[in-house]
Amino acid sequence: MAGTVVCNVINTDTGLFSTNNAYSGIAKAWVNYNGSTQTINNSFNVSSVTRVGSGDYTVNFSTAMPNANYVFAATAQNTSGVGTFISQKTSTTPTTTYCEFYVVTTAVTLVDTPIFCVTFFGN
Q1: Is 21 inside any structural domain?
Q2: When you count CB atoms within 10 A of the terminal residue's CB, does the N or C end of the chain come out lower?
Q3: Residue 23 carries which DSSP code?
């Protein structure tokens, strides 16, 4: 038996569909963060960003990731005249509720950059 299901709106503020965890291949969380003022400019499924120290951050998810085997893509604004990149902390393992990062210059200095962005993908 074949058929068609038509739905004009699926609207929910809780559960899997509210965080896109029910879909494969799309971002599960992302954040645009100002490390200079310690404020979230915009985000999806990120409850907060904790500054542990200069250039040392923990991104906390609003709804837990389905598992800890997610990947992330990140970028940071260069304001020091040298390259800036984001690195996952080597001393910690990602969890379903948070992920820890360093914002580092190519001179190997931790920095609070005006903008860093991280997007998380997983299943």
Answers
A1: no
A2: N
A3: S
Residue range of the domain that includes 34: 26-121
Task: Name the burial class of residue 84, with classes exposed (0-12), middle (13-18) and buried (19+) by CB atoms within 10 angstroms of its CB.
Answer: buried
pLDDT in tens, 34-49: 999 999 999 999 999 9
Neighbours of 112 (CB within 10 A): 19
Rounded to whole angstroms, the Cα distance separating 86 from 75 reads 6
Q: Would you state the structure tokens that stand for residue 42, as one six-digit string?
A: 């915009």
57 in any annotated domain: yes
Domain count, the chain: 1
49 by DSSP, 3-state: which? Answer: strand
Strands (E), the chain: 27-34, 39-44, 46-53, 56-61, 71-76, 84-88, 98-105, 116-121
